[in-house]
């Protein structure tokens, strides 16, 4: 009960958590809606891939051609979200999940090089040389997405994966904002604290404003 409330608290920082758009697993709603679940599964898969294949030190984004292909992955989620919010069509949780995954897979391929760009101690290393390298995180992400959709992962396991990925991703983003700080240790500790502060603040604001914006969420 308490762990479920904790998951929900942090998930509320970035998500509306509408029950009809959220997967119900083991009689508990996931802390994030289907679309955000897909995005974070994609983020987790690419971050894991970059760590396992030691590409986290890359300081160059993919080639122009590969970058263009990766950026095309934003089109499905944009079309699904835009057309549903405009009431042109009704989306589904499966579609929200499957359009969120490619978007999440794409993001680390651009953020990680940004984090390492000014690191003079690193040689120039491109994060993605060939398009087929991206199939590894894609395959992992869609496997995790399938396990989630068909309720083959426990609520605790998938929720832990989502929230830990959210915290880790938020820390990376705040780390980027704190890049001017020279001390690596201070920068890391400050990024973690700032990330938690922002998540707690957003969660509280979301709770306060929920009664006002819920009627307008129709997509």
TrEMBL record:
Ligase as UniProt keyword: no
Source organism, top-level taxon: Bacteria
Positions of transmembrane segments: 39-56, 68-88, 94-113, 134-152, 158-178, 190-209
Entries under InterPro entries matching the protein: DUF2085_TM
Keyword Ligase: no
Pfam families given in the database record: DUF2085
Keywords: Membrane, Transmembrane, Transmembrane helix
Protein name listed in UniProt: DUF2085 domain-containing protein
Organism whose genome encodes this protein: Bacillus taeanensis
């Amino acid at each position: 009960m308490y762990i479920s409330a904790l998951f929900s608290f942090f998930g509320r920082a970035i998500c509306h958590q509408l029950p009809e758009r959220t997967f119900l697993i083991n009689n508990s709603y996931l802390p994030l809606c289907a679309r955000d679940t897909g995005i974070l599964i994609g983020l987790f898969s690419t971050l894991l891939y970059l760590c396992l294949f030691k590409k986290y030190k890359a300081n160059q984004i993919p080639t122009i051609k590969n970058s263009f292909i990766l950026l095309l992955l934003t089109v499905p989620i944009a079309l699904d979200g835009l057309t549903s919010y405009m009431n042109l069509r009704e989306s589904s949780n499966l579609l929200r999940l499957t359009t969120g995954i490619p978007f999440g897979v794409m993001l680390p391929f651009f953020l990680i090089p940004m984090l390492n760009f000014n690191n003079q101690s690193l040689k120039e290393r491109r994060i993605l040389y060939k398009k087929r390298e991206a199939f590894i995180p894609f395959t992992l992400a869609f496997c995790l997405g399938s396990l989630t959709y068909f309720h083959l992962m426990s609520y605790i396991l998938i929720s832990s994966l989502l929230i830990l990925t959210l915290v880790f991703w938020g820390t990376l983003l705040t780390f980027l904002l704190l890049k001017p700080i020279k001390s690596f240790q201070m920068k890391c500790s400050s990024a973690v604290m700032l990330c938690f502060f922002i998540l707690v603040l957003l969660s509280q604001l979301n709770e306060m404003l929920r009664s006002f914006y819920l009627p307008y969420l129709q997509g």
